């Protein structure tokens, strides 16, 4: 119906074994370890799963296409989950009006915070239960989507969101989630990852669960034209981090490799243009595809120590996730060169970030240069990180589920060394 809107259905959704399938157990400090052991998980089975939402819409007009799709499914009650910023610019009101014009009763929770916490989840769940919502519609970036995933999961499974920290701990499908993206970075609109902060413990909980995968992912570039340059940079560099960590992951495969490298190409070609001119339609559209490809890569190959450490910085200091990733990315990859395969792959990436030779050191230089081009803080010192916290940050990073597929399993001393290097750079 709407020109430029493409639907992408996943033909591999049913009957494929999740490579993350493994038994898990809790430790005394409520963190998670894998009962089968990290080495066994990293070896992979002979069966590889590939997971994305059943349907995704891309292009201008995707909002209207999504509203029509919801109407055709004959849903009657929807909860919109968003944040104060999206509410203030009227986007959530626009979507609410679209749905109401199509016969839906719409409730709204618009108090999601950056780095959403357990309180946001519970408050949103109260609104959902009061309305008896059938579906959830998230509008925003990673924070809104993550909060909505958690709300939709608890609506059907009960308990506390901390009960689902780790890998595939839920028993029931979440309520159908329609994830409308407004940033080109987190890819939370299409992944089975949700990150929720436990403010009491100052940690971020990683919930990696097939049941939180959105039913429909929506990337309409018109929702991103007004995104400020700083947020464009932070979210775009988050997407770049997804590509690179997935490409060097021990769980990578030919499909995730293709997604990661094409994602890098699109981000390399488009991010600075979108940063310099937020209304650049081509740049915004290409970033929609680039960040989605990045999501396809890491949703199936997972991530590494950049995210494992960044989660701790976000939980401890309430720092922006994308900025933490951008600052950490070149330093973690420099340490990853200890692994011959990762070193070779970092050399391959060099050719996709503007270097003329496949040399891993050129990739590291390019990442630093990319950060400087978009005025990312130079180091962790500039972000207000404290050296006396390095020990606890390292310990928590080593318990984060994202580190499992990093090409090198660092010691605590090595993680501290990474933090020190990123602090002093």
TrEMBL record:
Ranges where the Alcohol dehydrogenase iron-type/glycerol dehydrogenase GldA domain occurs:
53-221
Q: Which gene holds the coding sequence for this protein?
A: ADH4_1
Identify the CDD domains for this entry.
PDDH
The family this protein is said to belong to: Belongs to the iron-containing alcohol dehydrogenase family.
Keywords (A to Z) from UniProt: NAD, Oxidoreductase
Q: Name one GO biological process term.
A: fermentation
Any one Pfam family here would be Fe-ADH
Q: Where is the Fe-containing alcohol dehydrogenase-like C-terminal domain?
A: 232-423
Q: Which organism is it from?
A: Saccharomyces pastorianus
**Protein known as:** Alcohol dehydrogenase 4
Instruction: Identify the Gene3D superfamilies for this entry.
Output: 3.40.50.1970, Dehydroquinate synthase-like - alpha domain
**Which top class of enzyme applies to this chain?**
oxidoreductase
- Cofactor(s) listed: Zn(2+); Fe(2+)
Q: Which SUPFAM superfamilies match?
A: Dehydroquinate synthase-like
Enzyme nomenclature, EC number: 1.1.1.1
Task: Write down the superkingdom of origin.
Answer: Eukaryota
GO MF terms listed in the record are: alcohol dehydrogenase (NAD+) activity; metal ion binding
List, alphabetically, the InterPro entries matched. Answer: ADH_Fe/GldA, ADH_Fe_C, ADH_Fe_CS, Alcohol_dehydrogenase_Fe
């Amino acid at each position: 119906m709407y020109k430029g809107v493409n639907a992408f259905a996943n033909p591999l959704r049913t009957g494929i074994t999740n490579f993350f399938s493994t038994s898990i157990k809790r430790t005394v400090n409520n963190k998670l370890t894998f009962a089968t052991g990290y080495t066994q998980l990293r070896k992979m089975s002979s069966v590889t799963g590939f997971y994305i939402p059943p349907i995704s819409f891309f292009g201008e007009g995707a909002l209207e296409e999504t509203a029509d799709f919801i109407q055709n499914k004959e849903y009657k009650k929807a909860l919109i989950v968003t944040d104060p910023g999206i509410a203030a610019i009227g986007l959530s009101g626009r979507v609410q009006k679209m749905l109401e014009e199509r016969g839906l009763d719409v409730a709204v929770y618009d108090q999601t915070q950056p780095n959403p916490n357990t309180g946001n989840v519970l408050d949103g769940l109260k609104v959902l239960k009061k309305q008896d919502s059938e579906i959830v519609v998230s509008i925003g970036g990673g924070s809104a989507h993550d909060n909505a995933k958690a709300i939709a999961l608890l609506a059907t499974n009960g308990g506390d969101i901390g009960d689902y920290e780790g890998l595939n701990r839920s028993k029931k499908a979440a309520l159908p989630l329609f994830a409308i993206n407004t940033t080109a970075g987190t890819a939370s609109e299409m992944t089975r990852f949700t990150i929720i902060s436990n403010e009491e413990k100052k940690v971020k909980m990683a919930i990696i669960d097939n049941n939180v995968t959105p039913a429909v992912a929506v990337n309409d570039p018109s929702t991103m034209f007004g995104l400020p340059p700083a947020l464009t940079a932070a979210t775009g560099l988050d997407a770049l981090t997804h590509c690179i960590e997935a490409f060097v992951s021990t769980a990578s495969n030919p499909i995730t490799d293709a997604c990661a490298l094409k994602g890098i190409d699109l981000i390399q070609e488009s991010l600075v243009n979108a940063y310099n001119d937020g209304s650049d339609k081509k740049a915004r559209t290409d970033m929609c595809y680039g960040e989605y490809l990045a999501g396809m890569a890491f949703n199936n190959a997972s991530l590494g120590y950049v995210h494992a450490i960044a989660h701790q910085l976000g939980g401890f200091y309430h720092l922006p996730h994308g900025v933490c990733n951008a600052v950490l990315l070149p330093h973690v990859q420099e340490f990853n060169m200890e692994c011959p395969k990762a070193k070779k792959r970092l050399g391959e990436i060099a050719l996709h970030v503007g270097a003329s030779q496949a040399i891993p050191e050129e990739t590291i230089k390019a990442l630093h240069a990319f950060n400087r081009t978009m005025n990312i803080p130079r180091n962790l010192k500039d972000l207000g990180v404290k050296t006396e916290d390095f020990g606890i940050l390292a310990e928590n990073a080593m318990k984060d589920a994202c580190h499992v597929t990093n090409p090198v399993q660092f010691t605590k001393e090595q993680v501290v060394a990474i933090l020190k290097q990123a602090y002093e750079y």
